[in-house]
Amino acid sequence: MRGQKSGLINNSDVSLSHGKHKNLEGTCIDKGLVQNRSKPVKKKPSCSSGRGSCPEEMHIKSQHEKCKAAQQSPEYVKVTPTEISKWRFKVQLEGEGTYECSATGLVFEVSEQALVRYSVLSWSETSELLPDSWRPAGSVYDVDVVNKDPSVLKFIHFPHSLCLAEPEHELSISVLHVKDRHADIEPTVDFTASHVKWRVSSLSPVGPIIPSRQHAKHHGAVLVYKQQDHLEQFCFHVFLAPNNKSEIKAIEEQVLSSGKKLINMHLSAACRLEEKNYQLKSKPEGKIMPSQIEFITEGTMLKGFFVAIFDQPPPFELFLMDPDINQELWTARITKGDWADKEEPKPRKITEVQSSCQKKMARLEVMPNNNPLLPDTNRGQALSSKQLMQVAETLGQEWGRVGLYLDLSTTDLDDIKEGEKDVTMQKMKMLERWQRRTPGGEATAQDLLRGLEDLKDLPVETRQLLTDMMNGSLTLPDHKANA
Q1: Domains of the chain with CATH codes
Q2: Per-residue pLDDT tens digits for 143-170
Q3: How far apart are CA 8 and CA 387, in angstroms?
Q4: What is the pLDDT of residues 95-109, one digit of tens each?
């Protein structure tokens, strides 16, 4: 794993917005011009921007004026995916053609009808496989075609975070293709202002990269969270990241695991950033720590951020500065109403507790034993090998966390990965190992669902499948085909 830096972030292809917005909208300040070219050689392509909104509005819309003017994307068929779980999707492509996912900006070229399933990964998950001589240039995705040969998916166009409006030199963009426990660096077919086109060789995690030696600017995301459990003061956490989903996902995960009550203020906006230090300032002046943060594109486990603290309530403004030229790159105004929005009579903790209780009660209603404190005299039949395989096929990249929630150790998971190369079979072996350790080896769907009750990103289809099994379905559907 690469060393952690106190800098900002790395990859997830979202697009962001410049332009002038009021109050909750951040404003990026950039006055350049742009040209649009389509060839990958000796060109001045324009910048990327994310398109569309996803089931949970994952995009920060990129409206860098120089890039917008040059970035007229082809008229692909726009498709809206089904969200399987957080950061995991599936979409049915109805026939030969080129389709663009409204949630991620991914573009798929297929030779026939296909059901495509894909997940956003964090670069920190693959950073140990990325040589130091390369840096991420967009999000990394794990893509799969369900029940068909991968060859039906001919090309994938990956959104990138590079700002190519005024390139100082010709860029070389490749992809990192993760295969089992190693990775290959593969060439791309073409790249444009917003996407990198890759010919599918096999399906496993892939993401765009550029050589570290190449100087490049990135569309940057400024993500502002307000901390509402910070005593009597007004506290904000401000993250910088390349404008791509992998890094935005990593920030979300870091925020959720922080133990603090941090709420996204949706002040995000796009600005062009390069790998150097930046400052955050405010009006009126508040306490801001640290004084500077380095914007980096290398995938790291922990992302650096500014903390801005004010003794008095809003309004106030935040400014991202380039200290080398004393120039404002981004600004946002926060009003008293913005801070109070989440403090109105919408008690999040109570709502969350009620929602959690309702979900637990709903699950208990379908369980043979409605009192979890009583012995399970009617837990149902033990899961068969076929049923375990059906469960395995619904799991995505989170299957390792599933194993940990089922009390397997990291050594168990490493042993499984070492002994089995096929990912689906790795998931199956993980479930079999859990089953063997269940008293009597008679693990049921109820046992499995209870063990995973607190796993937040358990796929919806996994939970539904286990519920169906608990309800006594004798003829189970092929969930892989319907995933």
Answers
A1: 1-343 (2.60.40.2660), 379-482 (1.10.533.10)
A2: 999 989 999 999 999 999 888 776 555 7
A3: 43
A4: 999 999 988 889 999
